[in-house]
Amino acid sequence: MARISGHFPAFSATTFLFLLLVVTHLRQCSGGGHDYHDALRKSILFFEGQRSGKLPPDQRVRWRRDSALHDGATAGVDLRGGYYDAGDNVKFGFPMAFTITMLSWSIIDFGRNMGGELGNAIKAVKWGTNYLLKATAKDGLVYVQVGDPLSDHNCWERPEDMDTSRMAYKIDANHPGSDVAGETAAALAAASIVFRSRDPAYSRLLLNRAVKVFEFADRHRGAYSSSLHYAVCPFYCDVNGYQDELLWGAAWLHKASRRREYREYIVKNEVVLRAGDTINEFGWDNKHAGINVLLSKEVLMGKADDLESFRINADGFICSVLPGFSHSQVQYSPGGLIFKAGGSNMQHVTSLSFLLLAYSNYLSHANHAVPCGDTAASPALLKRLARRQVDYILGDNPLRMSYMVGYGSHYPQRIHHRGSSLPSVASHPAHISCKEGSRYYLSPNPNPNILVGAVVGGPNSSDSFPDSRPFFQESEPTTYINAPLVGLLAYFSAHP
Ligand SMILES: *[C@@H]1O[C@H](CO)[C@@H](O)[C@H](O)[C@H]1NC(C)=O
């Protein structure tokens, strides 16, 4: 110390310039060149563009207008509100609930990193939970979808113009759906944690409802794809079974309520409900990796020895995701992006990266690393991998393009999204009917309305991206791509 202070050099302009260059270079090499906070703000703003129902006065996405104001009327109930899942105008309850669960988890773990965006993130959750409360208002049934997907997908219409069937689909004791009901219970329970200190009355309402919906899901077991096959398949068909959502719902209720019955349920049903299955997946259909990571937090904190097997599963999941390990089961594109076949790849990228980051934080606090074969994966390694995925999304990729609309200078222009690709109501007030929309769908022109913050399905397995509406697997955004990304961006904006 003394030597340095004794010989501190004169701070010349040249030295300063040199230091500036070194610092800038390091920032770029470490991926710190991204404006994560700007991306965070946009990733949350996206949810406003997906809103259904009557828009509030503080709506910032101004090219959108009120839509679907009679949802639920055919069933004599109020089902206005909620979110369109993607580039169409159906309200699919299963992915919507998963979206709310993940937005809530983003806030629970990373809300303190959101700065001024926290309020907007909470509003995004509440727009979803207000709808889920309507969908679960009657005991013993849950409305799980509004809109006939076949007629909706057959049209290219703005949500504001939509004139296809708004049939409301429900599950009940005779037509069970433990998958969608389990996920809905998870969403309500997770959101109750978000509101616990901010709005205790609302939080209690959410938690009490979660308890009831979970009870219904567990008592009347079955897959909603069997009960409502024609309406939900192949769109959000539960391929993976409903067992994982029962454990997932119980895990969130355990976290939110701290009642012993949920912990006992988890321990008792762990084997029956196959907690360890297909552990390297996490998405609206498959919750296994999420259950294991979520429950591991307490194990790592030394508070739940009876849940130790979940930590072992979570470790196994981590090893299966890390590239270059013998256990690795997840593929990467040549440019370094996690890649899973089957369309809308970015949902896997953001949800798996979220789990890497969340788990790395739990490990850090416990001073642990993950043993993978004869190496150990440190929390820092998991963070680097998660950051690498986020940076790829934001532009560090072979095409040098951002896959988030409105972020950076080069981003998707022709996303598969009805509202974004058709002229707005402000610029074209006249109705545009089902088939009149086709010419906008087929047009080579960029979309007129920029759906800021939308992250699309992304490049194919060789890092190519067509930027074309008909390539929906690549060019369609979804709410469940963004929900985990909100947490990732929050963390990296606070730890650039
Ligand atoms: C990815 O897209 C590019 C360009 O459209 C195409 O040439 C390539 O074959 C595609 N790769 C795969 C694996 O589909």
Automatic annotation (TrEMBL):
Residues 1-31 form the signal peptide. The keyword Lipoprotein does not apply. InterPro entries: 6-hairpin_glycosidase_sf, 6hp_glycosidase-like_sf, Glyco_hydro_9, Glyco_hydro_9_Asp/Glu_AS, Glyco_hydro_9_His_AS. Its EC number is 3.2.1.4. GO terms for molecular function: cellulase activity. One of its GO terms (biological process) is cellulose catabolic process. Pfam families: Glyco_hydro_9 (PF00759). The active site is at H416, D467, E476. Residues 36-489 form the Glycoside hydrolase family domain. Keywords: Carbohydrate metabolism, Cellulose degradation, Glycosidase, Hydrolase, Polysaccharide degradation, Signal. It comes from the Eukaryota. The keyword Membrane does not apply. It catalyses: Endohydrolysis of (1->4)-beta-D-glucosidic linkages in cellulose, lichenin and cereal beta-D-glucans. SUPFAM superfamilies: Six-hairpin glycosidases. Belongs to the glycosyl hydrolase 9 (cellulase E) family. This is Endoglucanase. It comes from Olea europaea subsp. europaea.
